[in-house]
Amino acid sequence: MTFQEQARRCPVVAILRGITPEEMLPVCEALRTAGIRLLEVPLNSPDALESIRHAAAKYHAAGELLAGAGTVLTAQNVRDVAAAGGRFIISPDANPEVIRETKRLGLVSIPGFFTATEAFTALRAGADYLKFFPAGKLGPGYVKDLKAVIKAPILAVGGVDTDNIAAFLDVCAGVGIGSALYKPGKTPAEIEQAAAVYAAAVR
Predict the structure, then answer these.
(1) Alpha-carbon distance 194 to 95, whole Å?
(2) Can 5 be counted among the known catalytic residues?
(3) Residue 124's closest CA among 99, 143, 153?
(4) Given strand 66-70, what is the order of strands in its sheet?
(5) Active site residue: 5, 22, 29, 40, which one?
(6) Strand, helix or coil at 4?
(7) For strand 112-113 and strand 130-132, is the pairing parallel, antiparallel, or unpaired?
(8) Which residue from 14, 15, 18, 126 could staple onto 103, CB 3.0 to 4.6 Å apart?
(9) Active site includes 131?
(10) Subunit comment for this entry (predicted)?
(11) Considering 23, 101, 131, 192, which one is annotated as catalytic?
(12) Which residues, other chains included, contact 133 with Cβ-Cβ below 8 Å and sequence gap of 6+?
């Protein structure tokens, strides 16, 4: 199942910053049970590629979850993620080299932007989605204004919570949620409970 199909089912990307390979499958299962199917493993997490490898091996063939990487800064990072089985690439910036390598390898490209100039730079390089970060400071109104000229799907990340998620999803194709879902030390049961709240909010 593609990123786009999973996002239509539940437009929440769980950002698993700091996760370890040992935690990965129990956390995946907690999120899957709650209905969240897109998992971002930031590359500054411990042994991030191994975590992606675990999720890809268990879930990708069945189409139950889709794992990708965040904090991807170089073309070599993209190649490493592709080799580990990751299916999408999320970056904090709009680096054309990273975007072009992502597309060359057949992965979904989701670079970060804050201004219209950055958004157009990313789109000219071939980006599929745009990650608006940090979203909470400027809010859904800023995205709505940008969409007058930017015709690509946008994911809002940073400062999205259960109070404003509906407003963001009125103008965005999805949202990224970090520590409200996962942070080191949270149990799978706590993660599933938090994820269920977000899954219900997007329904």
Answers:
(1) 33
(2) no
(3) 99
(4) 108-110, 88-90, 66-70, 38-42, 12-15, 174-177, 154-157, 130-132, 112-113
(5) 40
(6) helix
(7) parallel
(8) 126
(9) yes
(10) Homotrimer.
(11) 131
(12) 92, 112, 113, 114, 156, 157, 158, 176
